[in-house]
């Protein structure tokens, strides 16, 4: 699985959009970009995933660059409850499902 | 669905004792994963199963750790003998293969403290 690089931490004001970047320059053609988040003490929670098109669901939007070497997770209106560690992961959709978590980005949403 | 169920939620034991952590995956899921999380090392994948068969145990730290999945609805992670450095939160996760997004569903974790 390709390796990802994320900033260690970020701040965001409550009500503003939170944009979390991820670099995955060695991503393969069949690898998807997944985002999870982990709120303090809880198990990681799936947010969204995509291959090459932008994706949106009720939680967030995922923007993947045309060359697929980087992506951005967007929380459109961050709330205090969005304070968490956000993990960007690349992996194939099927098969072994081996999912390796990096250090992630610690997002602080401030009032 | 009740989600992935782990027990115990908290375990405090003394060095040298045997520890058994339990996991019930979501019904119908055919992949099961065991992770360990510490401040120093983050989330580490220990082992995962497909259809009750261990597929990759390369993350199991040493022979003191063992994992089993006797049936589709139950898995155990055993540490014998336990050591203080095994103190961590252990997460179990499950996933479904075909026709699905491939997302992992995590339990609430078992916090282990070895004195």
Secondary structure elements and their pairing?
The complex is a heterodimer of chains A (111) and B (115).
Chain A: E1 9-13, E2 18-23, E3 31-38, E4 45-50, E5 55-56, E6 61-64, E7 70-75, E8 84-92, E9 105-110
Parallel strand pairs in A: 1-9
Antiparallel strand pairs in A: 2-7, 3-4, 3-8, 5-6, 6-7, 8-9
Chain B: E1 5-7, E2 10-13, E3 19-24, E4 31-38, E5 42-50, E6 53-56, E7 65-71, E8 74-79, E9 88-95, E10 105-106, E11 110-114
Parallel strand pairs in B: 2-11
Antiparallel strand pairs in B: 1-3, 3-8, 4-5, 4-9, 5-6, 7-8, 9-10, 9-11
Outline of chain A, from the CA principal axes? globular
Shape of chain B: globular
Q: Number of DSSP strands of chain B? A: 11
**What is the radius of gyration of chain B?**
14 Å
- The helix count of chain A comes to 0
What's the mean pLDDT score of chain A?
A: 92
**Class by alpha and beta content of chain B:** mainly beta
| Low-pLDDT residue intervals, each spanning 5 or more residues of chain A | none
Discrete helix count of chain B: 0
Greatest interface and its residue counts? A-B, 24 and 26 residues
Oligomeric state as shown: heterodimer
Sheet-strand content of chain B, in percent, reads: over 45%
Secondary-structure element order of chain A, as H and E? Answer: EEEEEEEEE
Q: Helix coverage percent of residues of chain A?
A: under 10%
Please write the string of helix (H) and strand (E) elements of chain B.
Answer: EEEEEEEEEEE
Amino- and carboxy-terminal Cα gap of chain B: 36 Å
Q: Helical percent range of chain B? A: under 10%
Q: Approximately how much beta-strand content do the residues of chain A carry? A: over 45%
Q: Please mark out the parts of chain B with pLDDT under 50 across 5 or more consecutive residues, or reply none.
A: none
